[in-house]
Amino acid sequence: MTLDPQIERRLQTEQNLWLATVRPTGVPHLVPIWFVWVAGKIYLCTAAGSVKARNLTQNPHVAIALEDGSQPIVIEGLAQPIGRPPAAVVEAFQRKYDWNINTDGEYDQVIEIEPMRIRA
């Protein structure tokens, strides 16, 4: 998927996104979370037992929005937990947040999101 350079830049530099998942009861769950954009995909780190991680085991469909409502970017995609994150993802979290996701004991699950639709 080819992106407008301005959208690509914002996905690489903005600090937080809003992640919407769906509980098994059908009730949405919306949370702000750190993220990185690597090779056309979004990566998040969370606790494996978190509400968002549990929701994704039941329904992998997500909606994401960057924080700036004046210049919205909304993404719909499919999420999946991954085992060991690629080195580029680890490096992106280190650069962006000064955070080594490989040594964090609490946020032990990496989620990869494949964008299916981007609206801006």
Question: If you had to describe this structure to a student in words, what would you say it looks like?
Answer:
23% of the residues lie in helices and 41% in strands. With 120 residues, it is an alpha+beta fold. The chain has one domain: Pnp Oxidase, Chain A, CATH 2.30.110. A seven-stranded antiparallel β-sheet has the order 2-1-5-6-7-4-3, with helices on both faces. A hairpin with a 2-residue loop joins β3 (36-38) and β4.
Low-confidence parts: none
Beta strand % = 35-45%
Straight-line distance between termini: 14 Å
- How many structural domains in the coordinates? 1
Number of strands: 7
CATH class: Mainly Beta
Mean pLDDT: 96
Short account of what is shown:
The relative contact order is 0.24.
Properties at a glance:
single chain; 120 residues; alpha+beta; Pnp Oxidase, Chain A; seven-stranded antiparallel sheet; 3 helices; 23% helix; globular
Structural topology:
Layout: H1 5-13, E1 16-22, E2 28-34, E3 36-38, E4 41-46, H2 51-58, E5 61-66, E6 74-82, H3 87-97, E7 109-119
Antiparallel strand pairs: 1-2, 1-5, 3-4, 4-7, 5-6, 6-7
